[in-house]
Amino acid sequence: MRNNLDLSFTALIVVDFQNDFCPGGTLAVSEGDQIYPVVQDLVNEFEDRHRPIVFTRDYHPSNHISFVNRGGPWPPHCVQGTYGFEFFPKLRIPDNAAHFFKGYLKDADAYSGFEGCLATNGTITGITLESWLHSQNVHQVYITGLATDYCVKATAIDATRAGFDTIVITNGVKGVNVSPHDSERALNDMKQAGACLLEWPARHG
Ligand SMILES: [Zn+2]
């Protein structure tokens, strides 16, 4: 079935697959690590087809506005220069992948990858995700990563608003679920915004 998917105008967006959002991290998504096989399989497939692959990451200063010690909702997470900011260790990142950092200003939070900017060799540029995707002639995005009810949702909804045909990979996302069913509701919100939901037929092992 996957061979029939036309990905000629598609980019993959992997949202925030970072240590702090995985079990053992400071803002762990329960079973967040279990999306790994699907995420890696998607990365491999897009790489095989020479399609653009985007990784977004929270890149917070240690005094970030979203942290509890500044009156925000979250424990400190994904702080610049820490292990928690790094990718889930098993994840293999293609050399030519595009990296977008968000939430790097101390007084502004950002859930959506579309609020991030391209980082080349760790240096943040002024290039937004939307403009970068257009520069790659991308019309469609596949979205996977963490967490369903926050950054995945915000990224998917922004993608639809920016006019991209938006596909959310249901078996490649996991939610925080502060309230039960938050993930389910988030997937519904994404659908309402015009995104499609797809279970990726991953090859395991
Ligand atoms: Zn954050």
Major sheet description: 8 strands, mixed
CATH architecture: 3-Layer(aba) Sandwich
User: Radius of gyration over alpha carbons?
Assistant: 16 Å
- The count of β-strands is 8
CATH superfamily: Isochorismatase-like
The total of helices stands at 4
Order of helices and strands: EHEEEEHEHEHE
Rounded to the nearest angstrom, the distance between the terminal CA atoms is 18 Å
Question: Helix/strand/pairing class, anyone?
Answer: alpha/beta
- Which spans of ≥5 residues are poorly predicted at pLDDT below 50? none
CATH topology: Rossmann fold
Descriptive tags:
single chain, 205 residues, alpha/beta, Rossmann fold, 8-stranded mixed beta sheet, 4 helices, 22% helix, 23% strand, globular, binds zinc ion
Protein model, in words:
With 205 residues, this protein is an alpha/beta fold. It has a single domain (2-198), classed as Rossmann fold (3-Layer(aba) Sandwich). Helices cover 22% and strands 23% of the residues. It has helices at residues 36-48, 129-135, 148-161, 182-192, and strands at residues 10-15, 53-58, 98-102, 117-120, 123-128, 140-146, 165-174, 196-198. It has an 8-stranded mixed beta sheet, sandwiched between helices. Strand 6 (140-146), helix 3 and strand 7 (165-174) form a beta-alpha-beta unit. Helix 3 (148-161) runs parallel beside helix 4 (182-192). The longest helix has 14 residues, at 148-161. The protein is globular and about 50 Å long. The model has no long low-confidence stretch (mean pLDDT 96). Bound molecules: zinc ion. Zinc ion is lined by residues 58, 60, 66, 77-78, 103. Zinc ion (ZN) is lined by residues 58, 60, 66, 77-78, 103.
